[in-house]
TrEMBL record:
Chain positions recorded as substrate binding sites: 110
InterPro entries per the UniProt record, alphabetical: PsdUridine_synth_cat_dom_sf, PsdUridine_synth_TruA, PsdUridine_synth_TruA_a/b_dom, PsdUridine_synth_TruA_C, TruA/RsuA/RluB/E/F_N
EC number: 5.4.99.12
Keyword field contains Lyase: no
Function: Formation of pseudouridine at positions 38, 39 and 40 in the anticodon stem and loop of transfer RNAs.
Family: Belongs to the tRNA pseudouridine synthase TruA family.
Active-site annotation: 52 (nucleophile)
Quaternary structure annotation from Swiss-Prot or TrEMBL: Homodimer.
Enzyme class: isomerase
Protein name in the entry: tRNA pseudouridine synthase A
Sequence ranges assigned to domain Pseudouridine synthase I TruA alpha/beta in this UniProt record: 9-102, 143-243
Substrates-to-products reaction catalysed: uridine(38/39/40) in tRNA = pseudouridine(38/39/40) in tRNA
An example Gene Ontology biological process: tRNA pseudouridine synthesis
Length: 279
């Protein structure tokens, strides 16, 4: 048995999220269908996280197993030929059998894109349009409250799992008219990133205070507060970090004129996937 690791980029606009669903188009469903056609047997994939409907991914990490004697280069090319135009495989490599995209992850980074002002029609579906005045200095101050280990029940949808998570960084990058909100954490609860970003925008608009956010962190509750869950189309899964491997080897994030930086080949040279690359 062999375990393959993919780095996948996709536009989430037309998909009902990552997870396979009956009678709905999902990223997992389309990817598994292509892999099954290539390998000649049913394939089940595992992702680093299940992105919601409309959420985009710049560097989703996916794995699957097969006994087929296929090499990475051939698999990469076959996937590029079969996948739709709104999905792209950036890397294919072989990983140890105990590698798991979600369980092995050390941290994940999401970015949320805000357009200040009336959004151009060409960017709809990729940014959140915000026409109100925002105190971005206050937003940056509020962002610091979330860094550290907290119970994020107040900033997530109800779940039977523990709502305690560690946030390593939360940054606000001003590139007017774009503002990029970036968060790195050990893991994310359902809607956690979008609710944190939503409350920070409310803070900047004067609708909540720093004391309100501190209260929500001190007294966590799924039901006691009205939270702003920002729409999914401004959210991007950027990267997933691992202790023992780098899925993005040979790639770098570069500003190519899109809303957010994207993964490209280093030095502008294409690096072909290797037949065997221990993760």
């Amino acid at each position: 048995m062999r375990n393959f690791l993919l780095v996948l980029e996709y536009d989430g606009t037309r998909y009902a999220g990552w997870q396979r669903q009956k009678d709905r188009i999902t990223v997992q469903g389309v990817l598994e269908s292509s892999l099954s056609s290539i390998l000649g047997h049913p394939v089940t994939t595992v992702a680093s996280g299940r992105t919601d409907a409309g959420v985009h991914a710049l560097g989703q990490v996916v794995s699957f197993t097969t006994e087929k004697p296929v090499d990475c280069k051939m698999l990469h090319r076959a996937l590029q030929a079969l996948l739709p135009d709104d999905m792209r495989v950036l890397r294919v490599q072989e990983a140890p059998l105990d590698f798991h995209p979600r369980k092995s992850a050390k941290s994940k980074r999401y970015v949320y894109a805000v357009f200040c002002g009336t959004c151009p029609v060409f960017l709809r579906g990729y940014v959140y349009s915000l026409r109100q005045e925002v105190d971005w200095t206050l937003v940056q101050e509020g962002a610091r409250l979330f860094v550290g280990r907290h119970d994020f029940a107040s900033f997530s949808s109800p779940s039977p799992c523990s709502s305690v998570r560690t946030v390593y960084a939360l940054d606000v990058k001003l590139r007017f008219p774009l503002v990029l909100l970036s968060i790195v954490a050990e893991g994310f609860l359902h809607h956690m990133a979008r609710m944190i970003f939503g409350e920070l925008l409310l803070l900047g608009m004067g609708r909540v205070s720093l004391a309100d956010l501190e209260h929500m962190l001190t007294y966590p509750s799924h039901h006691a507060y009205r939270r702003l869950n920002l729409p999914p189309w401004g959210l991007y899964l950027v990267e997933v970090q691992y202790e023992r491997c780098n899925p993005y080897q040979g790639l770098e994030l570069e500003d190519v004129g899109f809303v957010v930086p994207v993964w490209v080949e280093k030095n502008g040279q294409k690096l072909l996937p290797r037949g065997f690359c221990p993760c």
